[in-house]
Amino acid sequence: MTANEGDPNAAPSVPKGRVLLVDDDPSLLAALERQLRKRFDITTAAGGKQALEFIAKGDDFAVIVSDLQMPGLSGLRFLAQAREKLPDMVPVILSGKASLDLALDALNEGRIFRFLTKPCDSNVLSAAIDAAIERHAANLAERSLLDSMGGGAVEALRTVKEQAQKAERTFTELANRSIKAIASEAAPSAEAFLNDSAQITTDPESGLPDWSSAQRAISAMLKADYNVHLAMFHISRFEFTCSRYGAAIGTQILLICSQHAASDISPNLPVFRWKGPVLLALIVSNESPATIRNAVHSFASINRHQYFQTPTRTVYLPVHMSAEVITLRGFDPVEVFSQIEQFGKQNEDSARLSQPWRSTIL
Q: What is the CATH number of the domain that holds 30?
């Protein structure tokens, strides 16, 4: 059913994109529809099967907000099928019982833009949908840009992109071999470090587990009898990029870096956003600190580039990170948190002294 059908109080369709809400709880769907229909063009579906029927009939959606655990068809499986029909669609997960493992699976396997937990503040949910709509607009803009270029130019651009991606994949595979070789096969799950009842608290801008979740995980890990290493990443020129191109571009960069780190550095635990441009990943391994440090630095040294769409132009930006590693065993939590703050401050000072990034404007 659609929010606008037969409802004179519902807002008219907005040109920036339709939003599909998918959940097997009809009362929750009704409540979300009431909260969001004044700002967005809302459609609701009582599960993945009904949502796929809407899509099969030709309904187009910019954003899909889906529950993760639904009977019959899970949220991840549904979103994977929906993406086949709507490749530019931007998915958001809104889950009631979010373990850290499920959050990581959703971010990696489902290519999720945001992971939110129930109950979710309406302002946080609206902000996530706004950001997702911006991402959808950027996806369409890049596709339109390619379509508007001459055939030869399009092929040349695609060839350059494919060559760059191939080179990056080759280097990434080489750099990640050391990470995968040192990752402990018996690494404990996230639930070993956080209470089963603990809810993930997320950063409102990126949807990543926030500094509070990181503090709980680190504190719990320090009590466990494992060799745990904390990888700290600082995204270079983050503040400069946000001020020049907009906060939405900064959020996209955070997610790109976190997804790379989650899949290649921290396969058993999520990547956390500490503050600003600082991301944290936890590694459980019996390898030496020097081996871990070399592997993390190799990963961070990979040069990544990405297209981003601003309100007025498309830009092709480099995404660079610096990194450091702390071996947690024997440390006091307060000491670790202090080192994280110091790492962020040192890299922030270095960024102020460096030259601005060069970007390609299309």
A: 3.40.50.2300
CA 79 – CA 112 distance, rounded (Å): 9
Is there a contact between 70 and 51 (Cβ–Cβ < 8 Å)?
no
CA-nearest of 64, 196, 208 to 135 is 64
Name the domain count of the chain. Answer: 2
Buried b (16+ CB within 10 A) or exposed e, 127-151: ebbebbbbbbbbbebbeeeeeeeee
Which stretches within 309-360 are classed as H helix? Answer: 333-353
Q: How far apart are CA 280 and CA 289, in angstroms?
A: 16
Half-sphere exposure of 80 (CA within 13 A, CB side): 12
> Quick check: is 7 in a domain?
no
CA gap 65, 128 in Å, rounded: 10
Query: Within a domain: residue 240?
Result: yes
**Is there a single domain that holds both residue 130 and residue 258?**
no
Give the three-class secondary structure for 281: strand
The pLDDT tens digits along the chain (362 residues) read: 443 444 434 433 444 579 999 999 999 999 999 999 888 999 999 999 999 999 999 889 999 999 988 888 888 889 889 988 998 898 988 877 554 455 555 555 446 777 777 777 788 788 889 888 887 887 777 677 666 655 555 565 555 455 544 544 444 444 444 444 444 433 444 444 444 334 567 888 888 888 888 888 888 878 776 678 899 999 988 888 888 888 888 888 888 888 878 777 766 667 899 988 999 988 877 777 888 887 888 778 776 777 777 767 677 787 888 889 998 888 888 899 999 999 888 877 555 444 444 444 43
